[in-house]
Amino acid sequence: MDTESILTLDGVYAGYGKMTILHGTNFTVPRNAITTVIGPNGAGKSTAFKTIFGMVRANAGRIAFEGADITNLPPRALIERGIVYVPQGRNIFPQLSVRHNLELGGVAAPAQLDLAGRMEQALDRFPVLRRKANQQASTLSGGEQKMLEIARSLLLEPKLMLVDEPSIGLSPLLVSELFSLLNDIKARGVTVLMIEQNAKRALESSDYGIVLELGQTRMFDRADKLLADPRVGQLFLGGTMKTTKGAA
Amino acid sequence: MNARNIAIAALSAVVIAALLAAPYALKSYGLYILSLWAVTTIGAIGLNLTLGYAGQISLAQGAFVGIGAYCTAILTTKYGYPLPFTYLVAFVSCFSIGWVLGYPALRVEHHYLAFVTLAFTTLVYLIFRNEEWLTGGVSGIGGIPRPVMFGYSLRAPAEFYYFCLANLAAISLAFWGLIRSPWGRAFVAVRENPVRALSLGVDTRRYTLIAFALGAGLGGISGVLLAQLVQFIDPSPFSLTASLNLLLMVVVGGSGYFFGPFVGAIVAVLLPEWLRFSGGLYLICYAILVMVLMAFCPTGLIGLAGRFLKPVSKPAPVPAREQTT
Ligand SMILES: Nc1ncnc2c1ncn2[C@@H]1O[C@H](COP(=O)(O)OP(=O)(O)OP(=O)(O)O)[C@@H](O)[C@H]1O
Ligand SMILES: [Mg+2]
To answer: Which whole-number Å values give the CA distances from B251 to A44, B159, B303, B305, in the listed order?
Structure first.
């Protein structure tokens, strides 16, 4: 690809205990774009994100962000460099208030940052969250909870956002809203790397796509080319694979 | 929300006014008990951070109060150091020991942590009792001075009582600021779900250690004041019973609630005095209260009061921890 890349994985091996899931994974993520990772269940997509974000150890290989080596850095150091991560499934703290949840996005903020100002901006951008700021977060609907997670991850104005299956459990209308929100986020200069089971819809709203299988990159191309590729169509879009699944 | 805040503010104002007026109504014994309440509350606030906010059980808070008290007793009576210096020594020692004692919390499950801290409390108690050259053993250390501020002695019960209240007020304000700060917000996140907290950039290891260390440090401060209050220190108030009592106070008051320790200390320190006429009955009442409360309202008395005032966001009871990503 001729575009500038923001993140590069180079021969990364990682797994859980003795079980290796990523077998020398390579891929690059273009800057200022939305890139979607697709692949069958258990391919290691979530593991790849956790490895990038320092929550699973890379046993070999190199991960670089903006040219600098970030392999096995702890989450906090990555957030300070401008990477945020929204894991698969529910990630709010249900017992705490919506506001408290949102504030937690600023844990790694530098001392001089005006967090109160950022909180106000976030609440302006997501009026639902302002209306329900003092409610317990468990009272939000599934879609609102996802909004809260995304708003929280944007609090420190990251450069790269890793989102693992954000559309799970959302109604079709909300899925469209979510993807257009991700495009807004991109327009503000944030690079988005997401995992999606909903491959067709996700690729339609993305710039690039990566196909991951058995812990290795099978394909990387522009999203429209992948959508037109018969192999992808057969594998992921043609119905031979489940395109939806329950929450993790 | 607003009605609730107004109710809290009104109640606080009444309580503060009553506390300030107490010396006009009470004799020196009453003031002594109220001072003890303030001192105990400080220790319980420390444990509330460790247990209620960070979710780590500790059976060592009584030992930290003891370390603070002995630091004060030894430094003032044997070496003639001024009291402010003993604050520093007590806080720094307890903070450091608490930090080290927190390490097992990073590796073991809750009930093992109870054993580790229990062993520590026993060890500290044995040192107080057996190392006579340092602690005076069972005969203890007497003649602990009370503070002098700007040439004005705080020896008298009323003056010293105000001094204890001022300490409690300063620590409460600092604690309030801490848990309201973005930094302090993360303690609760670690308790609620460590994995989710980690993915938000909370260094969960460091937070757990800090919760232990700060909690222990406040225990130390409570000990410094206790030594000045009783003016005579021996090992008996720092046995395991003291740690268990502090733990009960936090839980009965409402762990994870700002006002929990205040209420818990009322139940543990003031109630026995009020119920003195009932003789041995008090202990039975206390035991029954604890059992009933834990069975029907594990969030403690503050949690119970909150039910009537419709809480907006209630913290979960302490052991609630899910281990999902
Ligand atoms: N915490 C864990 N401990 C042990 N094994 C795990 C753990 N998490 C995932 N695995 C295993 O690693 C493999 C890859 O899992 P991963 O979550 O990366 O897949 P995925 O591509 O994200 O799948 P999905 O589409 O179902 O989310 C699976 O076989 C899974 O069982
Ligand atoms: Mg996954």
So the answer is: 43, 31, 10, 14
